[in-house]
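FAQ

Q: What does a record look like?
A: Structure on top, sequence underneath. For example:
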C-alpha cells in the first residue's frame, strides 16, 4: 500500500512542476478531467472502474493505483474492482484474437 501511495504522490508532485511551466495546460487538463469524472449518465463509481480498466489495459501503473483508490472512495467493492480486472482481461484477449484472425491471417496469405 505504501508503494502505491508513494507513486501517486510522486505523480502529483510532478504535476505541480508541470503546472509551474505550463499553468494553462495543467489547468485545462484538470478542468477537462474534472468534468469527465462528474456524475452524469454514468455514476462516479462506474467512471472510476472504466478508468481503472483503461489504466490496466495501457499498463499505466500510476493510473491503476489511483483509480483503485478513487473507485473505493466512490463505493466500489473489492469484488467490483476484481470483476473490472476480469473484464479488462477479456477485452485484452479479445483484442489480441481480433488482430490475430484479421491482420496476422491476412499477412500469412
Amino acid at each position: 500500500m505504501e508503494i502505491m501511495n508513494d507513486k501517486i504522490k510522486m505523480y502529483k508532485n510532478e504535476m505541480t512542476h508541470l503546472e509551474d511551466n505550463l499553468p494553462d495546460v495543467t489547468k485545462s487538463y484538470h478542468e477537462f478531467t474534472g468534468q469527465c469524472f462528474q456524475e452524469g449518465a454514468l455514476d462516479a463509481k462506474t467512471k472510476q472502474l472504466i478508468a481503472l480498466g483503461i489504466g490496466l489495459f495501457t499498463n499505466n501503473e500510476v493510473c491503476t493505483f489511483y483509480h483503485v483508490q478513487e473507485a473505493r472512495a466512490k463505493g466500489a467493492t473489492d469484488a467490483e474492482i476484481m470483476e473490472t480486472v476480469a473484464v479488462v482481461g477479456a477485452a485484452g484477449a479479445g483484442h489480441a484474437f481480433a488482430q490475430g484472425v484479421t491482420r496476422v491471417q491476412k499477412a500469412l496469405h
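Q: Is there anything notable about this one?
A: The helical segments are 2-21, 23-36, 44-57, 61-73, 78-108.
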